[in-house]
Recover the amino acids of this structure.
């Protein structure tokens, strides 16, 4: 990917649009911008995927297309220039066949990009990482949010935060309905460092009005309005639904009766896994793996953090982030 792709505002907008899905503000904004640039693809999902892939490949998101009469004029000129000997195979027909094959190949690739799930990675590497995580006893970073943001943490996004009895959005945030905000640890972890990020929170019966996210990013270039970055492995809890977002792909996980009391994201060189602490009827809890696979974070340093996203004009109760802990070997 080109060095400047992940800092391109359009790339960030497309990533947010694919994360939040049809009907969201980023989705509508991205589609409108692409339509204004001349994009004609009717399938909005394919339009966004195609534009994001073009930016990753170093191309402009505005596709270059031939004019309305280009194909007819080209064929007329080729037919006029063809030899009079009718026994030869018409050059124009040959070119048309080659072009048709190329178009079918491109459409096939685009369909694959849209419908194919993100690569799940080497299953053996995932299980090795899970076994290694049981030996992570070295405390790399422990932060408790109880009064003020620690010096080595930085606030992101446009939401105002309150640190009374835990990190959570301030009451009465005067921001757009799709705004976001959170905080991240400013110290990057090396790409070859295996670690587990564990976030403990006060569960709520529902997090209406806010989506809560725990993330590992490969960059500290977060957007000023939402506090998101283009490439992350993110666990998201919205209402009672949880999702994992990896490389722009949203993976639905399922519905929980209440927010789990803690979430763990374990990161290896190329693969990762996400676990949540689910409560049992007897009041006990245990960690359950909800996702594993290739994390697509590349070879950049890892930044860990938490974030809240507004999901509606009326903001309800948000969970309180109590502690963020990073452990490794």
């Amino acid at each position: 990917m080109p060095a400047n792709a992940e800092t391109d505002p359009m790339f960030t907008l497309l990533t947010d649009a694919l994360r939040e899905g049809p009907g969201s503000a980023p989705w509508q904004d991205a589609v409108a911008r692409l339509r204004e640039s001349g994009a004609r693809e009717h399938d909005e999902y394919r339009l966004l995927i195609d534009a994001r892939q073009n930016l990753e490949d170093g191309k402009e998101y505005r596709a270059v297309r031939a004019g309305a009469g280009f194909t007819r004029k080209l064929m007329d000129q080729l037919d006029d220039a063809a030899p009079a000997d009718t026994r030869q195979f018409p050059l124009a027909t040959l070119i048309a066949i080659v072009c048709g094959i190329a178009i079918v190949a491109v459409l096939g690739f685009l369909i694959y990009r849209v419908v194919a799930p993100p690569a799940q990675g080497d299953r053996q590497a995932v299980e090795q990482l899970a076994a290694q995580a049981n030996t992570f006893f070295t405390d790399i970073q422990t932060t408790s949010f109880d009064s003020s943001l620690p010096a080595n943490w930085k606030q992101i996004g446009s939401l105002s935060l309150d640190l009374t009895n835990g990190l959570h959005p301030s009451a009465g945030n005067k921001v757009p309905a799709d705004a976001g905000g959170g905080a991240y640890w400013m110290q990057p972890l090396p790409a070859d460092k295996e670690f587990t990020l564990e976030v403990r929170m006060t569960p709520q019966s529902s997090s209406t009005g806010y989506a809560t996210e725990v993330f590992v990013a490969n960059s500290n270039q977060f957007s000023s309005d939402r506090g998101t970055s283009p490439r992350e492995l993110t666990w998201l809890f919205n209402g009672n639904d949880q999702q994992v977002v990896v490389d722009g792909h949203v993976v639905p996980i399922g519905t929980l009766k209440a927010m789990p009391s803690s979430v763990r994201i374990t990161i290896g060189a190329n693969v990762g896994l996400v676990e949540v602490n689910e409560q049992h009827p007897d009041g006990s809890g245990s960690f359950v793996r909800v996702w594993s696979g290739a994390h697509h974070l590349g070879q950049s340093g890892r930044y860990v953090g938490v974030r809240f996203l507004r999901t509606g004009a009326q903001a309800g109760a948000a969970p309180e982030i109590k502690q963020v802990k990073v452990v490794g070997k």
